[in-house]
Design goal:
Radius of gyration: 29 Å
Helix content: 40-55%
Distance between the termini: 21 Å
Strand content: 15-25%
Largest sheet: 8 strands, mixed
Shape: globular
Structural class: alpha/beta
């Protein structure tokens, strides 16, 4: 459906398309409008509790279009929703006169009651694990723990998959066949009924749908005595899933689940020829290799030690956590006191294990950042991957080893490409009402960053390092950048410096450069005692790879007046192209700059987000001779009404092209062979 025809206001009939899920601050569910558009509704939890899946209701909705990503590498939430068939979001709704419900709605309601019962009986830690591993509800798990699983590429252990479904079915089979002496035929019939029920109780996630449907097909094939290969079963499940919900194709969990499963099926003969340890190593390694291109494409990095941790944590989850959690859940119905006693054993073993696991994140050397690979590299990789598997299956180990080296070489080539590129780049990132610029010198001889600001609207307590985590880090990682040669901080206002320490820590930055100053309190406030800044003042010259920097201001280390007028101002020259970075310098500071007898400037970074207190008539008249382009980093609909109409008019009168983050999103200037080309992330 086209986004342009979605109304901002809607009054009429709706169908509840998903079971309402209660989060910490709101209840979320999907609804279908009369024109068959789907929108996501988020409303305060107190508004209604009787909304059910499948109900037809009357509603008044104010629909908002979700904002698209405005920076390369940034997570695109609007695209994420669109790939689920969701065209907009409603943050408050009036919903009345609901009638009817889906026949599966009682199962979802029972799931809610069961999750509530688990919370009421077990400790918060045990309940969080039980809900995550048995019912697919991860919201109660600690954020730091989830980040650690993501860091080590072990998130699949937190998602219900074939491992969980297989274990549950094995347990059910053992209880019915050996415990109650029920015939195999009857056991299979019970399983055919149980599996769809469990899929719904587990939240109907793509991985559990795949595992459940495969189990159903295998049981049916066994009952009907059909000759069907496992790969054919997987193909049928894949096609049937997409027929049922085409949007599953875009979900990473769906892609990961089928890719790993198909890879292991194709490698069945290879996997089952050794002892348990080697089988585990092969399964872990093949799974990681199969997913590598998708991991690089979506997350830009992998963890080279993750397959080793899989050897420890897959058995731990399989042999300890899952069986014990299932036993605890069943036991609390039969003997609550015994269940609580067994829970203490679970906590006694699991808590130290998870604490040790979180502590492993300090080994950042295991993180291999490659960047977003090209489709060509991905295609070549998978051709080589299939070749390695075939050669390995055929016993041609020497040739398989040679192709394996070529397999890894794909990513070395991906990493090497920027070092073969003579293009000089400056990227103005869209960090809202703040500043952050990334400079890549030709042949990536150096990577510099100017400012790492956070928006003032987000306090240190509410959203620390929001821009760093959501904008700057993904951008650098998508470029395959894991280290910086220098971070320049123009001045110590929050919107220019707040993410600086996190940048220094995360990207092993070689040098911190600031305007010379006697007052070091702001430096300690933002960077602590770990980093010793290099103080710059007028007359200093720096050389980085193929670029040179001439410092224009400040003249002294004595701060007089505002932070803005003590901004670090410098000219970056690369291959004859000059860019003037002005921080937030205002008109009094511009007078000092004019005394420096500036050389011709090609690109001007407009000071102070285009405020009328900067870029005065005298200043712009002085630099206008050669300036062709101007960067303005400014927040969309900001409270300061930046940029000023006066500043825009001055620039336009001089035929200077204006590039603004509030209009264009991130803007990248490419300079090569004496020509500048500008690329807009938001057209």
């Amino acid at each position: 459906m086209s986004e342009s025809i979605i109304p901002d206001q809607y009054t009429g009939s709706i169908i509840i398309k998903s079971h309402p899920v209660t989060k910490e601050f709101y209840t979320e569910f999907e609804v279908e409008l009369a024109d068959q558009h789907n929108v996501l509704v988020r409303q305060p939890t107190h508004k209604r509790t009787d909304i059910k899946l499948g109900a037809v209701c009357k509603a008044e909705l104010s629909i908002e279009q979700d904002k698209k990503a405005t920076n390369p590498g940034q997570f695109d939430y609007a695209l994420f929703l669109r790939n689920q068939g969701i065209s907009g979001t409603v943050y408050d709704a009036t919903i009345d006169e609901c009638v009817g419900s889906s026949f599966v709605s009682p199962l979802y309601e029972y799931r809610d009651r069961l999750l509530g019962r688990i919370d009421g009986i077990f400790s918060s830690n045990t309940a969080a694990w039980m809900k995550a591993l048995l019912f697919g509800e991860r919201s109660s798990l600690d954020d730091q723990l989830i980040e650690s699983f993501q860091f080590w590429n072990l998130s699949h252990l937190l998602a219900i998959s074939g491992l969980h479904v297989g274990l549950l079915l094995s347990l059910l089979y053992a209880v019915l066949y050996f415990g109650f002496r029920i015939s195999k035929e009857s056991v299979m019939n019970v399983m055919l009924v149980t599996i769809p029920v469990y899929i719904l109780l587990a939240g109907a996630q793509p991985s559990v749908i795949r595992a459940g449907m495969m189990a159903v097909l295998v049981i049916l094939i066994t009952k009907l005595k059909l000759a069907l290969k496992l790969l054919d079963v997987l193909s049928i499940v894949y096609i049937a899933s997409l027929i049922f919900d085409p949007y599953l194709f875009y979900q990473l969990s769906f892609q990961f689940s089928f890719l790993v499963t198909s890879s292991l099926i194709l490698s069945k003969r290879l996997i089952t020829t050794d002892g348990w340890l080697w089988i585990s190593i092969k399964i872990s390694l093949i799974s990681q290799l199969a997913l590598l291109p998708l991991q690089f494409y979506h997350f830009y990095y992998t963890n080279v030690l993750s397959f080793l941790l899989n050897l420890l944590f897959v058995p731990y989850f399989t042999l300890f956590m899952l069986p014990l959690l299932i036993t605890l859940l069943l036991l609390h119905y039969l003997s609550p006191s015994l269940a609580l006693l067994m829970e203490k054993v679970f906590i006694w073993i699991n808590q130290p294990m998870m604490d040790a696991f979180v502590g492993l994140e300090q080994f950042s050397f295991a993180q291999w950042i490659v960047g977003k690979p090209s489709i060509v590299i991905i295609f070549i990789y998978y051709v080589l991957f299939l070749s390695v598997m075939n050669l390995w299956n055929d016993g041609n180990k020497k040739l398989a080893a040679a192709f394996s080296v070529m397999l890894i070489t794909c990513w070395w080539v991906q990493q090497a490409l920027p070092y073969l590129d003579s293009t000089y780049r400056i990227t103005m990132l869209d960090v809202g009402q703040g500043d952050s610029f990334v400079i890549e010198l030709p042949y990536r001889s150096a990577v510099l960053m100017v400012d790492a600001g956070e928006e003032v609207a987000y306090s240190h307590l509410d959203r620390p390092n929001r821009n760093m985590k959501n904008v700057i880090q993904p951008f650098l990682w998508s470029k395959g950048i894991s280290e910086l040669d220098a971070l320049f901080i123009s001045h110590f206002d929050y919107d220019h410096v707040a993410g600086g320490r996190e940048i220094m820590d995360t990207f092993k930055t070689k040098g911190l450069y600031i305007a010379a100053r006697k007052d070091i309190e702001p430096v300690k406030r933002y960077f602590g005692d770990r980093y010793e800044p290099i103080l710059l003042r007028k007359g200093h010259h720096l050389q980085f790879g193929g670029g040179s920097i001439e410092v224009i201001a400040p003249e002294t280390d004595q701060l007089s007046g505002s932070e803005n007028n003590h901004s670090l101002v410098f000219i970056l020259e690369v291959d004859g192209h000059r860019a003037l970075f002005t921080g937030d310098v205002e008109k009094p500071g511009e007078k000092q700059i004019l005394q420096a007898n500036l050389p011709p400037i090609d690109l001007l970074k407009v000071a102070h987000h285009g405020s009328k207190t900067s870029t005065g008539e005298a200043f712009i008249t002085e630099v206008e001779g050669e300036v062709k382009d101007a960067f303005i980093s400014v927040g969309e609909e900001n409270a300061f009404n930046h940029p000023s109409e006066e500043v825009i008019q001055r620039l336009e009168e001089r035929n200077i092209r204006i590039w603004r983050t509030d209009i264009h999103g991130a803007v990248e200037m490419n300079y090569k062979n004496g020509q500048s080309t500008f690329y807009l992330f938001t057209p």
